[in-house]
Write a structure and sequence with these properties.
The structure holds two protein chains of two kinds. Chain A is mostly beta strands. Chain A contains no helices and eleven strands. Chain A is globular.
Chain lengths: 117, 112
């Protein structure tokens, strides 16, 4: 019973390159959330997706960032033309229902640590 | 703006002591308050959560106290152990949202 799988665990990109972060939710989970964690800070919500739908992207920068959760396959967080300020740990969480409903827990992956050089 | 404020930033406690972490929130629509534990290099893991209809919830050595009128909640770790050394995050959310607002975290170090 695998947990939330994120890959790669570590990603190094040069400024201007694209970063693609993948998240495979737990089996049976159709709700995915992406969070960003800067060093010494808490997690900041970026986007909430269900299969094939973006439910809430209020925490995602309007430019260069996009997310998808296709019918088949993992959820992808894509960062185009990365800059040094994008260096952070990106965590994905999944749940079978919206987080908070009926005491539903969202399970977090181990994160992808993006370093922009 | 920080919707959930957490203190202290760090905490050192002796083995067997009590660790207390406090959080305050502004948005009265929040009705779900979880605490997460995170070890270095790992993702956050849910420790314990509470809803505003109760003032206290206890699970093992971990207790959440909730004060709805003051819009504050706290985590108490009783009989702290070295294995409890981690970063603890409070968070808040609502049933109708699929997202959580996190506090900035408290690094807890339990000395032997």
């Amino acid at each position: 019973n695998a947990g939330v799988m994120q890959n790669p665990r570590h990603l190094v990109r040069r400024r201007g390159q694209e970063a693609r972060l993948r998240c495979s939710p737990m089996k049976g989970h159709s709700h995915v959330y992406w969070y960003r964690q800067l060093p010494e800070e808490g997690l900041k919500f970026m986007v909430y997706l269900q299969k094939e739908n973006i439910i809430d992207e209020s925490g995602m920068p309007k430019e260069r960032f996009s997310a998808e959760f296709p019918k088949e396959g993992p959820s992808i967080l894509r960062i185009q033309q990365v800059v040094r300020g994008d260096s952070a740990a990106y965590f994905c969480a999944s749940s079978p229902f919206p987080q908070g409903r009926l005491n539903t827990e969202a399970f977090f992956g181990q994160g992808t640590r993006l370093t922009v050089v | 703006q920080q919707q959930v404020k957490q203190s202290p930033q760090s905490l050192i406690v002796q083995k067997g002591g009590i660790s207390i972490i406090n959080c305050a929130y502004e948005n009265t629509a929040f009705d779900y308050f979880p605490w997460y534990q995170q070890f270095p290099g790992k993702g956050p893991a849910l420790l314990i959560a509470i809803r505003p209809d109760v003032s206290e919830k206890k699970e093992g050595r971990f207790t959440i106290s909730f004060n709805k009128s003051a819009k504050q909640f706290s985590l108490h770790i009783m009989d702290s152990q070295p294995g409890d050394s981690a970063t603890y995050f409070c968070a808040a959310g609502t049933d109708s949202w699929g997202k959580l607002q996190f506090g900035a975290g408290t690094q807890v170090v339990v000395t032997p």
